[in-house]
Amino acid sequence: MSALPPRPGNLHPGAQPLPLMSRGESEAHFELKQLALQWARAQGYKIAHPEVALPHYRFRLDVAAYRPAHLKLPDPNRAGRLTRKDAIGHTAVFECKASRSDYRRDARSITTLQNRLGALHQRRLELERLLRLYYPSILNGDSLFQEFHSVDFARAGHPEYAKLLQQIQRLTSQLHANTKFERLVQWGAANLFYLVAEPDTVPLHEIPPAWGLLVRQNAELILLRKPHFHEVPETERLALLHRIALTATPRRSPSPSQSSPEAEP
């Protein structure tokens, strides 16, 4: 296993060092959390921390992050000019899985469902190849280069493809029913959800619905699947920001001897 990457910065310059490895936590899982923090901050999530508890959901998140937002509004004092105003940003959750067994524990995977999903996934790839070939109109034409055009397979109106998607959705829901992954999405815990894993830990066809996939490659994470963006009320986003701040704040106040002396008049 490669050496642990440099530990990312804290919530703010005066914050305490990030927590050490939790009791019973593997080194691989700990490193994935650090990589998730690095990746989140590189994407503009300036406020992020590991091991954030959600008491009302009875969950502890491996990493939770918040990205500030800004709006450009007409300046009331200068006609035709815009002014920048702070706004409520969006949130992200990262769940790390260092091994297949670790993933199966939360996903409640069932072997028969996994095998069936794998077969359906291969059938979907083959159908999509044929649909591209015989239904060129499904290309959206949203890129200057044809190989980068996005594709709307539903536009073909192919009944077998529609039925296949329904089967995949039903089996995937069964595979992840009543699990941590699905509940976090249902409860609107964040705008974005990422599964962070070691290579070959989670096949693409087993990823929970709406979750993105970040896979470790040496000392960095590679985004293999983008997550769906969920509209979440501002109250929920602020609640997660509040939990991150509480987690990052030292539990004990500094002793009087550590307090800064007041400036003399």
Plain-language structure description:
This protein is an alpha/beta fold and 265 residues long. Helix content is 33%, strand content 22%. It has 6 helices and 6 strands. The protein has a 6-stranded mixed β-sheet, sandwiched between helices. It starts with 26 loop residues before the first helix and ends in a 17-residue tail after the last helix. Mean pLDDT is 78; it is low at 1-17, 142-148 and 259-265.
Brief write-up:
By secondary structure, the protein is of the alpha/beta class. The protein has six helices and six strands.
The total beta strand count reads 6
Rg: 22 Å
Total DSSP helices: 6
N/C terminus separation = 57 Å
Strand-pairing-aware structural class: alpha/beta
> How would a textbook summarize the main sheet?
6 strands, mixed
Shape: globular
Proportion of residues in β-strands: 15-25%
Helix content bin = 25-40%
Low-confidence stretches: 1-17, 142-148, 259-265
Widest sheet, order of strands:
1-2-3-4-5-6
Helix-strand topology string: HEEEHHHHEEEH
Mean of all residue-level pLDDT scores: 78
Key terms:
265 residues, 6-stranded mixed sheet, 33% helix, disordered N terminus
